[in-house]
Write a structure and sequence with these properties.
The structure is a single chain. This protein has a 5-stranded mixed beta sheet with strand order 2-8-7-4-5, with no helix packed on it. It has a 3-stranded antiparallel beta sheet with strand order 1-3-6, with no helix packed on it. It folds into 3 domains: 30 residues; 121 residues, hypothetical protein (bacova_03559) (Immunoglobulin-like), CATH 2.60.40; 59 residues, no CATH class. It contains 6 helices and 8 strands, in the order H-E-E-E-E-E-E-E-E-H-H-H-H-H. The longest helix has 28 residues. It is elongated.
Amino acid sequence: MKTLYIFTILLFLLYIAGSCNDDQQKLFSGSTTMHFALSDNELDSIACSFLNTSESYITVNLPVELNGYAGQNYRFRLKADSSQTTAIVNKHYQPLEEFYEIKKDEYSLNVPITLNYSPELDSLSVKLVLQLEPAAYMSTGISYRQEATIVSSNRLPPIPYWDGHYSSYFGPYSRVKHRYILSELKLNTFVKFEDYMEWSNLNRTQKTAYGMQMNNFFAENEIYDEHGQRIEPWMN
């Protein structure tokens, strides 16, 4: 009798647990969504440059995030928007997978997108505009995060804050000087806005040391800028 009682209790507990899981799934089944989870600085686009690598490819991790019930696997596709994309598959980027999947009990996935180097990127930028296509049974996610753009180039991005933050240590701006700073100092602080925050956290002694290193480099090497003018030392 005691054994039967325990068995009945176990069946009841299993029933309750199953009901809770069913209720939870029903609660989220109509509102589970996914979206690109780019940072506030990136918003809906990521800028990529081959300047800091000798490799012929770059892998970009594109974050996709799930909102809602995570008790099952969720498949989705990424589709290149042909009306906006200027990058060419197999030339500027590797083909996309047939589908990607966020695993059960996980809420995000970094989708690797492989970009290829092409000589024409030295003079132009191409963009890959990707649209998120969740499974048909999922609800539409945050509307402005259903599309992500990856811009690929080997060109230097503009540095609008050079005169205010960098010129004290590196002198007047030139594209050639910019390239040498990246290659000689092995720093990425001049490429993306958020990296400037790293630079601003350095103390004045560290910044001056970097500036002096480049000043001495150009003093010892006869290098000309994009206008045919020699890059002269700027520190006494």
